[in-house]
Amino acid sequence: MLQLLKAQNFHYHPFKSYSCLERSMEAYLPYVLPLVLLPVSLYVISCIRRKDSTKLTNAPPGSKGWPMLGENMEFALLGPQKFVKDRMDKYSPEVFQTSLLGEKMAIFCGAQGNKFLFMNENKLLTSWWPQSMKKALLFPEFVESNLKEVSALKRSFHHDILKPEALKQYIPVMDALAREHLDHDWTPNSVVKVVPLSKKYTFELACRLFLSVVEPDHIQRLSDPFTLVTNGMFSVPIDLPGTAYNRAIKGGKMVREELMKIIKERRKEMTENKETEGRDLLSKMLLVTDEEGQLLSEMEISNNIIGLLVASFETTSSAVTAVMNYLAELPHIYKEVLKEQMDIAKSKGPDELLTWQDIEKMKYSWNVARESLRLTPPAQGAFRETTTEFTYAGFTIPKGWKTFWTVHSSHKNPKYFPEPEKFDPSRFEGSGPAPYTFVPFGGGPRMCPGKEYARLEVLVFMHNVVRRFRLQKAIPNEKIVFHASPTPVHGLPVHLHPHEK
Q1: Which of its termini does the chain have fewer beta carbons within 10 Å around, N or C?
Q2: pLDDT digit string (tens) for 99-158?
Q3: Residues 175-183, mean pLDDT to the nearest whole number
Q4: pTM of the full predicted structure?
Q5: For 305-320, b where at least 16 C-beta lie within 10 A, e where not — what string?
Q6: Cα 166 from chain centre
Q7: What is the pLDDT of residues 429-487, one digit of tens each?
């Protein structure tokens, strides 16, 4: 209104009155606008719903929620586990439809849903990233592409550098950094918050192993904006100041700029020194060629490094946090882990670092870690996009819909895990759980290539913590909230009780 008055050469002063006409227009405008817009909005909504109902006569049951907003609000308020369980009970235990992140989505449930999606990867489905992840993580030039440069390495290179044979050399580095981390951040304190410290440790380790970045200031220039990215990468894609999505985009830009500096400097250094062997993951990426025999560009390498940092930073730190939570909560479980880890420690010299052989002896500790991942999985599932229309459980899933397989619908299912809320590491003895029921790392062709890396990192950290401390939760019934991964709302503060030497 003020702009309109100025355009008509009216002069406004805050202490002068409008004319009667002006005051009337200002007073009635808030009431008139909804009356004009409401019929239009209702017409558009009815057209959309009529179009959907005529096209999808056999779609999975469910609700699309509010126009534009979908069921994002319900998902955020209930949390992934309750959101999925409520709709399984109400609509279908196999598959239901919803609208999340601005997309029509079919949520697949249970071991059969996991199996169907895993087995039909690259047949009926392809990878899909939410807009919030693409805009925050990737260079804008690649946002609308088919993400070929992100997936090209995963099929071969990622599996090569993250398979057990290649990871053996990482174990002493993990152990040395864990010792430094505990000396500096844990031992001087009687109470610590596990969440921020586990993120600090996992990110420092990733920077050291992947990029050979060890200076604390340099690591912080990457970690501060990276936190913004992970906090907003599953947010509703509304790019307004103050939103998590807006902060994630800004954080992603800072991360990419810092990575590009590192990559360009390393490429120059390797060219000048004529290096032909990579000393870390970045150097190996600078030497590898894609499927057409071409060296990867700096932007392609940056996108792949970011993908690995996301996995190592958010999901691995969440796994470490979950393990520490149960060790602090369950003394009888802690006691058995301590016994196993002390047996390993006694077989080594005081300054001797862990080896692959030591990791292989941590059978019970790994069962404890797996049970922690069953009850508190870092990821809630994964997205895909349908490339063709298909039928599942008697329902039609149209081409172009997004799909999501769910972790809790099998992890907490009493059919697969009796007394599902009980912490019981013996579930993983012998042959372990039935196929497709335990899926913290996914499955099929796109099973997380960092699964073994996460196993080593969690076990090395467990070894170092339990050798030094008995843990006790400061807040016994601390609430868990969901961001990119499940997070104790107060950061999981624990009392540290050092062992007598």
Answers
A1: C
A2: 988 889 999 999 999 999 999 988 999 888 777 676 666 555 544 444 444 444 444 555
A3: 97
A4: 0.82
A5: bbbbbbbbbbbbbbbb
A6: 24
A7: 998 899 999 999 887 766 666 788 899 999 999 999 999 999 999 999 999 988 778 89
What's the CA gap between 61 and 218, in Å, rounded?
50
Residues 381 and 404: beta-carbon distance below 8 Å: yes
- Does residue 211 sit in helix, strand or coil? helix
12 in Cβ contact with 2 (< 8 Å): yes
Residue with structure tokens 């779609």?
Answer: 59
The DSSP line for 235-289 is S-----TTSHHHHHHHHHHHHHHHHHHHHHHHHHHHHHHT--S-SSHHHHHHH-B
Is 150 within 8 Å of 138 (Cβ atoms)? yes
Paired tokens of 487: 């997070």
CB atoms within 10 A of CB 135: 21
Going from the C-alpha of 40 to that of each of 32, 43, 54, the distances in angstroms are 13, 5, 21
d(CA 140, CA 153): 20
Identity of residue 360: E
Separation of alpha carbons 147 and 299, rounded Å = 12
Total count of residues recorded for the chain:
501
Cβ 458 vs Cβ 472: under 8 Å: no
Please give the Cα distance from 345 to 341 (Å, whole number): 6
Position 470: which residue type? Answer: R
CA geometry: angle 405, 411, 412, nearest 5 deg: 115
Model confidence over 381-410: pLDDT tens digits? 889 999 999 999 999 999 999 999 999 999
Q: Would you list the DSSP string of 65-76?
A: -BTTTBTHHHHH
b vs e for 445-468, b when ≥16 Cβ sit within 10 Å of the residue's Cβ?
Answer: ebebbbebbbbbbbbbbbbbbbeb
The two three-digit tokens of residue 453, written as one number: 């890396």
Amino acid at 446: R
CA-to-CA distance for 98 and 104, rounded, in angstroms?
Answer: 6
* Cα angle 99, 313, 368; round to 5: 90
Query: Residue with structure tokens 């999925």?
Result: 84
